[in-house]
Amino acid sequence: MAALSILELVRVTEETDARGALDNARDLAAHAEEWGYKRIWVAEHHNMIGIASAATSVVLAHLAAGTKTIRVGAGGIMLPNHSPYVIAEQFGTLARLFPDRIDLGLGRAPGTDQMTLRALRRSPESADQFPQDVLELQAFLAPAGPNQRIQAVPAAGTEVPLWILGSSNFGAMLAGELGLPYAFASHFAPELLLQALQIYRTRFKPSEQLSRPYAMVGVNVIAAETDAEARRLATTQQMSFTNMFRGTRGLSQPPIDDIETYWSPMEKAQAQQMLARSIIGSPETVRTGLERLVEETGADELMIVSDVYDHRARLRSFEMIAEAGRDIAGSAAGDISLQRKA
């Protein structure tokens, strides 16, 4: 079974403020560590009142300080918004504070709208420099040379692992060429998943960081005691996507009994297209869905989004998902044992 990790959205709900969202994220990280998740990431989003992870490196320090062993990282930093030098300083500092626990996933999209991009003092054309910026950032995280006049202090020598994130073929090609691990965002852009993975694996060139391709697949998973209850919990995310299409992003909303009363046929079609690979249901349904996804994609790791409104219900969802992963791993180990005996 592929490793399981978490993408924490740091959702601000109608019942929690930003501080509550940040503390809930830290609480989830502590539980995830106990349940055996490999890593927990947060993403950079700006000008969204329902997401409290804009200052991503600060949020990561909050999560890492509340845990001991789980890897903590950005999924991701939208590099065109920043100077590679400053990101090296930030994540190098995190690496000094929390050795061997920090990941740095890098995306090319702005993570916001064009007006906010101007407020960030960045040009939309900055995305064109993404490959060069990745290499520059990597160089600042590497050990400093004897005559290197500009160092990212205290980042030099930390060699924080870099990941390339993507929802299209561009990121797949870049990750392969640079020999970096690749994470595909099929939790909101599933259409090109299989094609991007094939491109990544075909184009992969071994590097100092990675000797063979390593692919992570993002997926929405919501688990509950029954399929019906899981489908009800999933309406929170479905409403969030609907609001995005309407241009009315807001706070996370509690689940409703009938999503058909909320969205129009066109909004439903749009949301279902973006959420097409979601796995929603009872523990058995989730287990079957995870098995099929790993078999289809050959993913080395699954990055789970479980966008559930109530914090306790969300914790229970992630706990059930972890249990399903262990069940799959146990079954696989049993199958191997039987094969050897045969």
From TrEMBL:
Superkingdom field: Bacteria
GO cellular component: cytosol
GO molecular function list: oxidoreductase activity, acting on paired donors, with incorporation or reduction of molecular oxygen
Pfam families in alphabetical order: Bac_luciferase
Signal peptide: none
Domain Luciferase-like: 9-300
InterPro entries: Bact_Lucif_Oxidored, CmoO-like, Luciferase-like_dom, Luciferase-like_sf
Family indicated by similarity: To bacterial alkanal monooxygenase alpha and beta chains.
Stated name of the protein: Luciferase-like monooxygenase
Lineage: Bacteria, Pseudomonadati, Pseudomonadota, Alphaproteobacteria, Hyphomicrobiales
